[in-house]
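Q: Predict the assembly, please.
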Amino acid sequence: MKKIRGKVYIVGAGPGDPELISVKGLKSLKKADCLLYDFLSSVELLRYAKSSCEKVCVGKKDGLHLKEQNEINKLLYKKALKYKNVVRLKGGDPFIFSRGYEEARFLRQKGVSFEVIPGITSAIAGPESHGIPLTIKNRISSVAILTGRKKDINAEIDAPDCQTLVYLMGVRNIANIVRALVKSGRKKTTPCAFIEKATQKDSRIVRATIGTIEEKAKRFSVKPPAVLIVGEVVKDGYRS
Ligand SMILES: C[S@@+](CC[C@H](N)C(=O)[O-])C[C@H]1O[C@@H](n2cnc3c(N)ncnc32)[C@H](O)[C@@H]1O
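A: Predicted assembly structure:
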């Protein structure tokens, strides 16, 4: 049995603004001997790592995978055998549509010690950074975070009975999302918005309704990464 030297920190980098990583996450980054990071993590965060730190981009971005998940798992294990402190840096929160959970389970099976350091998810930071709350006291009391794209591209998208819905990975599949929203009984006049590159300098918001979002997203060439928020809160935003 190989002796496992290292500890792995599965860290949420936050949505883009490098200042939105947690103090704990940043501390782990500064002491990392090896860093495995995704595309979505703010590149500026990399400069906090020691110059001797081995940095490996294992990123996933908009369908492009540099490495398959099982390769990433194996690499994490290999680096934990070699180094004392290994950081796995992931965009947003590591457990929100991010496979951090799978990585944690794999490490556990392999007997590698690890710690999960949560991050600010784009699902919350996206709307909030444009003044849109996900809940409002006594009025908007339910919110769901959903995937806008399933493995089987033809699979039906979920549209549960919540007042606010936030879809990640939905730009390319907006037609199917709209179909699901209408099928769930929502009115075509329900407000919604795409928030692109949340918390980054060139972030923007495209406001619409369920009935117009597909056309507007095309007209304004909305591109990933973007979150789609659906519900009355879009109208309530303090910048609306
Ligand atoms: C694979 S998921 C990872 C989500 C991430 N773990 C999180 O908590 O934000 C990637 C999707 O997150 C959303 N996303 C990530 N960063 C974003 C940003 N800065 N602005 C808007 N959406 C973002 C987009 O919907 C993107 O397609």
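The CA atoms of residues 45 and 110 lie 29 Å apart. The pocket of S-adenosylmethionine is lined by residues 15-16, 40, 91-93, 96-98, 121-123, 126, 168-169, 195, 197-200, 224-227 (CB under 6 Å).
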